[in-house]
From TrEMBL:
It is a multi-pass membrane protein. GO terms for molecular function: gluconate transmembrane transporter activity. InterPro entries: Glcn_transporter. Its main location: membrane. It is found in: Cell membrane. Keywords: Cell membrane, Membrane, Transmembrane, Transmembrane helix, Transport. This is Gnt-I system high-affinity gluconate transporter. Belongs to the GntP permease family.
Length: 439
């Protein structure tokens, strides 16, 4: 019965989100209540589990997700993203332009959430394709594959951050391992795959070739743009490397431990961005604050999704369902890295949301993962890779790509869906290689 209850609960969740088109947060709440009731939990126990699940999940994520959204808004609105893109194109040249765009997508994608990053970089893609007279998707795929990888693999993005918190993984190590895997995966799914897409060159209206209207004299400097966009990575990397070189009791290590905390690193990054990308450009604190508030409001929808997943995870735990499932999975003798990827991939294909797929997988597999000896950072990346598998019609990103680039359904499957599949499978291979190297 516990297995049937869990399967039916997941099926009901898929039905509500993918077919009924119900709100994801409300769907999670309804499924959590139903699963708790079928598991024999009383009303008070179900309510308590939902409250604890939401509180524990969001309690450690609100700061980093909110600050991440603010940093992304400042990088986008200030023109820093434009500076990064233009500079990388000038460095790589026309012949290797797709490699420069892939690197630009990764740098911009680290601080920016996927949808916001997509909307910001698409005008650059259109303008570049028009200027250099190259096929549009040949230019677009390298940059968008990098955004997708950052979304699924790298903190401070919602899904990998939430999964890392649930599995007690080190955020800094997760980010570093994620970048090690991200570079070859982006190369394969972006520039290499893009060479097969020259035949796809949809016609775009002229007005789409314009970039965000930031006057040239108001743009931040190139060095400032790079440093601020990468500041969370810089601070987390300093702490991770310092932990390997300096004694834990020393003053320097205490300072690095403070600035290397994920929440503090994001806070410092936002403060530096406010000064470097806002006040120094002549913006008033009032206008900056208004933009930051708007950014936080936009990420609140993602927070509710994560909160709903937290409630569902807690009900599975309190109802004893995931302990039962863990015993079954152990008997299957499937490696935890493969199991995490596989479950996340199946849920992703069924539901569409990478965030929902990743967090639901953690809820189902938690006891099984806790009994494994695999580094939790690699588990985060394995589940993240699975959560990106084969984006199709139930994923908002699929339609965003299709409509912006004026593609047919068949063309979108042959470009976007294949690219996402390469990212997912390549991510799993990268995680497996790190595991074999005893990382």
């Amino acid at each position: 019965m516990p297995l049937l209850i869990t399967i039916f609960g997941i099926f009901l969740l898929i039905l509500l989100i993918a077919w009924v088109k119900a709100d994801t947060f409300l769907s999670f709440l309804l499924v959590s209540v139903m699963v708790g009731w079928w598991s024999g939990m009383g009303t008070d126990a179900i309510v308590h589990a939902v409250e604890i699940g939401i509180g524990n999940t969001l309690g450690s994520l609100v700061i980093i997700l909110g600050l991440g959204a603010m940093l992304g808004r400042l990088v986008a609105d200030s023109g820093a993203a434009r500076q990064i893109t233009d500079q990388l194109i000038s460095w790589f040249g026309l012949r290797n332009i797709r490699w420069g765009l892939a690197l630009a997508g990764l740098i911009i994608g680290i601080p920016m959430f996927y949808t916001a990053g997509f909307v910001v970089v698409v005008p650059f893609i259109f303008a570049i394709a028009h200027r250099v007279r190259l096929p549009l998707l040949y230019i677009a795929i390298p940059m968008l594959s990098a955004l997708s990888v950052a979304h699924g693999f790298l903190p401070p993005h919602p899904s990998p951050t939430a999964i890392a918190v649930e599995l007690h993984a080190n955020i800094g190590k997760t980010l570093l391992y994620g970048i090690v895997i991200a570079v070859p995966v982006i190369a394969l799914a972006g520039p290499v795959f893009a060479t097969r897409l020259k035949k796809y060159n949809p016609v775009i209206e002229a007005h789409m070739f314009t970039s965000p209207a930031v006057p040239a004299d108001k743009l931040p400097g190139v060095a400032t743009s790079f440093i601020i966009a990468l500041m969370p990575l810089i601070l987390l990397t300093l702490y991770t490397i310092g932990a390997m070189l300096f004694p834990a009791s020393g003053f320097l290590m205490q300072v690095l431990h403070f600035i290397g905390n994920a929440d503090i690193a994001m806070f410092i990054s936002v403060i530096i961005a406010i000064v470097g990308l806002g006040l120094k450009r002549g913006l008033s604190m009032k206008s900056i604050t208004r933009d930051l508030q708007d950014a936080f409001q936009q990420v609140s929808v993602v927070m509710f999704v994560i909160a709903g997943a937290g409630a569902f995870m807690q009900v599975l735990h309190d109802g004893g369902l995931n302990d039962y499932l863990s015993a079954i999975f152990i008997q299957w003798h499937i490696h935890p890295l493969l199991m995490g990827w596989l479950v996340a991939a199946v849920i992703r294909i069924c539901i569409g949301s990478a965030t929902v797929a990743g967090l639901t997988t953690v809820g189902i597999l938690m006891p099984f993962l806790q009994q494994s000896h695999v580094p939790p950072e690699l588990m985060v990346l394995s589940i993240g890779a699975g959560s990106l598998m084969f984006s199709h019609v139930n994923d908002g990103g699929f339609w965003l790509f299709k409509e912006y680039f004026h593609l047919t359904m068949k063309q979108t499957f042959l470009t976007w869906s294949v690219m996402e599949t390469i990212v997912s499978v390549g991510g799993l291979l990268g995680v497996w290689i790190l595991h074999l190297l005893h990382i």
